[in-house]
Amino acid sequence: MRDPLRPGRTIGDEIDRPVHIRARGADATSDPVEESVALGRAIENAIRARVIGQDDLIRGVLLALLSGGHCLVEGTPGLGKTMLVRTIGAVLGVTFSRIQFTPDLMPTDVIGTSIYGPNLNGARTLRFEPGPLFAGVVLADEVNRATPKTQSALLEAMEEGQATVSGETYRLPEPFFVLATQNPIEMEGTYPLPDVQLDRFFFKLHVDYPSPADLNRILEATTRGPEAEPERIASGDGLLLARAVVRELPIASYVRDYAARLVLATHPNRRAPRIVRRYVAHGASPRGAQSMILAAKARALLGGRYNVSFADIRSVTLPALRHRVKRNLAGEVSGVTTDQVLDAVLREIVEE
After folding, report:
1. Which residue, among 116, 81, 113, has the nearest Cα to 100 in the 3D structure?
2. Are strands 124-130 and 112-118 parallel, antiparallel or unpaired?
3. Residue 135: CB partners within 8 Å, gap ≥ 6?
4. Per DSSP, what are the bridge partners of residue 178?
């Protein structure tokens, strides 16, 4: 599998070395890379069959899923976000949980709590009753409507894959994926997510309204009778193998350097574009660069390529960095968006 778009330069084993990954219990003749490519494409096709007119959203969520990250989705209600997450859980055969965030939601409503009562032997003892967070795929609906105390309940889970209750640490199931949503229009009674929590999200994705043709397809599919449930086409172990393959996919040093220069160009105290120096308070964190590299690897894998190209890096820059770039007061007053800032960075920072 060669990249038909690879740059015409000699870099030796830097991108051409083979990927050596073996699944636990896999047959010696099986190719984990081919299996992962087939898995990713099958998941994407299964989701597109159910969620109509949101191809960019589906691809972004899939890249995060293959990279082991979590997604923050911004869009108005009714555009298929719940259907998307339910379909992911169904095709992977993992548990699905939806948490409706409200101002009165408590951290224990999300994580769970310790209950004093009889155990299997009849003796009364303190036992942990897990909350809805303990699922393979979690939809955190309108996450910005809960208080910061409740929002912080997701921090440890998203970063460490565990939850701590009454001094005891409990591992979350693997794979574990969080898709959080927020409504960009109705902001009354909301609590903006702090920067430290925004940085935990691998991608921030925007949901666009469907085109007239897609809207007609949605109406035809949803008003003619009950929809068939999606079939399970993969497993949690298969997704974990694909994540391992993504991490092992090689990337050339000059492509990695390009990603680093893009991230550094979002900082106004460095050699940054004029729009960054004028409208940005602080730039993206190193975690943003990590997200770019992993997402670019996942994109290359879905394309059937063993190496990462400049195009892969460019395509994931906005969803990986838009929530990690903080505008200053001048930027907020002028209405300049972080996407406009990042577009300027992409135009000015050239490939080398």
Report:
1. 81
2. antiparallel
3. 89, 94, 95, 96, 97, 173
4. 138
- Give the least confident one: 7-11, 83-87, 280-284: 7-11
Residue 175, token pair as written in the block: 């794979």
pLDDT digits (tens, 9 = 90+) for 217-256: 888 877 876 777 777 887 788 889 999 999 999 999 999 9
4 pLDDT more than 60: no
If you average pLDDT over residues 170-183, what whole number do you get?
Answer: 89
Lowest-confidence segment of 8-17, 115-124, 296-305 by average pLDDT: 8-17
Q: What is the DSSP string of 117-136?
A: EE-TTS-EEEEEEE-TTSSS
Instruction: Show the tokens assigned to 181.
Output: 């949503």
Mean pLDDT of 70-75: 90
Domains of the chain: 31-248 (3.40.50.300), 250-352 (1.10.8.80)
Task: Give dist(CA 157, CA 134) in Å, integer.
Answer: 9
Count CB neighbours of 271 within 10 A: 12
**pTM for the whole thing?**
0.85
> Which residue reads 């976000």 in tokens?
81
Determine contact, residues 117/124, Cβ cutoff 8 Å: yes
The angle, 0 to 180 degrees and rounded to 10, between the axes of the packed helices 55-67 and 32-50 is 140
Longest dimension (CA), the chain: 72
Segment holding 341, helix H or strand E: helix 338-348
